[in-house]
Amino acid sequence: MNRIEEAMHACRLCPRMCGADRLHGKIGYCGEKAAIVAARAALHRWEEPCISGTGGSGTVFLSGCTLRCVFCQNREIAAGHSGREISLDRLAEIFLELQEKGAHNINLVTPTHYSVCLAEALKKARTNGLTIPVIYNTSGYERPEILREMEPYIDIYMPDFKYIDTETAAKYSHAADYFEVAKAALAEMVHQQPQPIWDENGMLTKGVLVRHLVLPGHTGESIRILQYLHEIYGESIILSIMNQYTPLEGVELPREISRKLTRGEYKRVVNAACRMGITQAYIQEGETAKESFIPPFSGEGL
Fold first, then answer.
1. Rounded to whole angstroms, what are the CA distances from 158 to 12, 129, 154, 195, 235?
2. Can you tell me the distance from the alpha carbon of 257 to that of 231, in angstroms, rounded to the nearest whole number?
3. What count of Cα atoms within 13 Å lies in the side-chain half-sphere of residue 274?
4. Structural domains in the chain?
5. Given a cut of 60, is residue 288 above it in pLDDT?
6. Are 142 and 159 in contact (CB under 8 A)?
7. Are 146 and 3 in contact, with CB atoms under 8 Å apart?
8. Is pLDDT above 80 for 79?
9. Annotation: binding site
10. pLDDT: is 215 or 251 the higher one?
11. CA nearest 170: which of 253, 73, 255, 67?
């Protein structure tokens, strides 16, 4: 039994450790079987400047998710309602095609539950000429043991750091253990990539970029998260403080997060970050809380 078969036979790839026999057609907590399912593979220009650059990030949106975020912007694919099954060989080809199109990097979105498969596809692609950096774009809800298996293949980790409070994590993502899990996962990521490295054009080639989405009515928690990250990691990570929270039409949400973030709320968090002495951070300006920023999951590039 090879590593993929072993992992999928009784799946323990994510912190849910559901044990589903995905290899033989059972569906894991992630909503997926063993086969890789993706919804889009294309140049993406809506990431941070050091990721998207001028040519775009070669982004592969994978279907399924190990969290259950009530406000998920990509719920169409996170819930497994959209996507196309692709083989390991085809995925390796896609990586090379994105590189040929001028992608600055390969950006694996929601990779957790496919990690062992992605490692094999990346190995094949590198054998055939893949040279650009690879990004592990994750919710932050990861097992350090699995991240260690990914170390030879990943240049940039781009995790979310969503919550510090157990109650918030349980209510909005059905993951009461989120903070403890994400804390351990981030420690492993920084261990692997201890300092950001940029090329001559200002593109990130190695490192850890941590994203935090500010939720309406939760600025206090956001400030505590930034304080934690700054105290523990300082300038060894890049921060991205995001204001693009978007309550999607037709999705029933808890009342306190059923609205957009106000400018005042976001300004409060950014000002707090400045007072902490955080200097290596991206902030968002203008109207980013729009559904138009969500790409079409049409199967492009697959």
1. 22, 24, 10, 13, 15
2. 28
3. 7
4. 30-287 (3.20.20.70)
5. no
6. yes
7. no
8. no
9. 65, 69, 72
10. 215
11. 67
As given in the structure block, the two tokens for residue 192 are: 């692997």
Per-residue model confidence as pLDDT tens digits over 122-178: 999 999 999 999 999 999 999 999 999 999 999 999 999 999 999 999 999 999 999
pLDDT for 176: 98
Annotated binding site for [4Fe-4S] cluster, which residues? 65, 69, 72
Q: Quote the pTM value.
A: 0.96
Asked whether residue 291 carries a pLDDT value surpassing 60, the answer given is no
Can you tell me whether residue 190 is helix, strand or coil?
helix
**What is the pLDDT, as a whole number, of residue 292?**
45
Instruction: Give the Cα separation of 54 and 177 in Å (integer).
Output: 38
As given in the structure block, the two tokens for residue 280 are 């290596």
Mean pLDDT of the chain: 94
Structure tokens at 136: 């592990």
Task: Tally Cβ neighbours within 10 Å of residue 14.
Answer: 22
